[in-house]
Amino acid sequence: MIDTHETARRPAGGTHGAQVRPARRKTTKVIVSLIAGGLAGGLATGVLLAFVDRGLFGQLDAHHEVAMLVALVYVVTGLFVAIGVARPAIGARFLNVEDAEEIAEHRRMHAYSCIGMIAIGLLLALAALARPLAIDPAIALAGCAALMTAFIAASWRQRRLIDELLAALSRETAALAFYLLALAGGSWSLLAVLGYAPAPIPLDWLTMIAATLLLAAFGASFARGMLTPR
Amino acid sequence: MENRLKQFRESSGWSQGELARRLGVSRQTINAVETDKYDPSLPLALRMAKLFACSVPEIFIDTWEPEQ
Q1: Statement to judge: residues A132 and A74 lie in one domain
Q2: What pTM does this model have?
């Protein structure tokens, strides 16, 4: 029960305090993050496209290439988080946290997060490459089932470690992802039904699910100010 | 919703991490509340008020008035 007549402890006029990161360090961190992200993303994309051009993944059409690129984003992002989990001091230089201790405080949660992201990325990549590489469908299915299980298990365990902000963020991400998927997939299907575009193939739906989930996560995080440099 | 959590926290000499630890939430949650990006649940708002020995409306400012 709230006692609204209770005497308040009056807050003093705020100084920013020693815990606030100086603006210069924030700027440096943003630059380091952008360079690291750009380099890793650019390098990974370059390697992937080189492999595709050399035919190492068999004959890939646009559907499969886009799926592989989305899968790559998941895997690279997951690996960045994995570096942060393994070495919080290094992770604090490019992840949006106040300091290394903040990563260490939520190490298990971040670990499950990177397992989930890498599992989705590998699942999408396996789905995209199964036919071009003539992987036995039963083996591909078993691999996809194992990756899906890893994703679900990691998400389930992560649920117990998140606080109310992240729980709210998770709900908002799911809702936004559904709207984005309905907009993108629905519009594309509508155009296909009316004969204005080729119909999306099943792989396109998997790609759209993964891509809209990622976009929604960034959108929801941005709306909550969680992408603001700290 | 506008709030004075940061002022209360600083007057207690606590960092965001220390307040988060005392409330059992993440630093991100404290940061999001302080920057008006997230309105906490009623249980968390009550815990904040209890921790700072004040009432919830002293931390969270609501300008709404009932119609007469």
Answers
A1: yes
A2: 0.82
Residues of A in contact with B11 (CB under 8 A): 9-12
Q: Are residues A59 and A116 in the same domain?
A: yes
- Tell whether A156 is covered by a domain: yes
Whole-angstrom CA distances from A179 to A172, A173, A182, A208, A224 are: 11, 10, 5, 12, 18
What CATH homologous superfamily does B2-55 map to? lambda repressor-like DNA-binding domains (1.10.260.40)
- Residue of A7, A164, A226 to mutate, testing the B interface (most B Cβ within 10 Å of its Cβ): A164
Q: Do A6 and B54 make contact, defined as CB atoms within 8 angstroms?
A: yes
Q: How many CA atoms lie within 13 A of A199 on its CB side?
A: 4
Asked whether residue A12 is domain-assigned, the answer is: no
Nearest CA-CA partner of B50 in B2, B8, B16: B8
What is the ipTM, given to two decimal places? 0.89
Q: Provide the domain count of chain A.
A: 2
Is the CB of residue B15 less than 8 Å away from at least one CB of chain A? yes
Query: For residues A215 and A164, what is the distance between their CA atoms, to the nearest angstrom?
Result: 21
Both tokens of A122, joined, read 């590998």
Are A88 and A149 in contact, with CB atoms under 8 Å apart? no
Is residue A118 domain-shared with residue A184, that is, in the same domain?
no
Task: Say if residues B23 and A163 touch (Cβ distance below 8 Å).
Answer: no
User: Most distant CA pair in chain B: distance in Å?
Assistant: 43
Express each pLDDT in A72-117 by its tens digit. 999 999 999 999 999 999 988 888 888 888 898 889 999 999 999 9
Span A181-190, pLDDT tens digits: 999 999 999 9
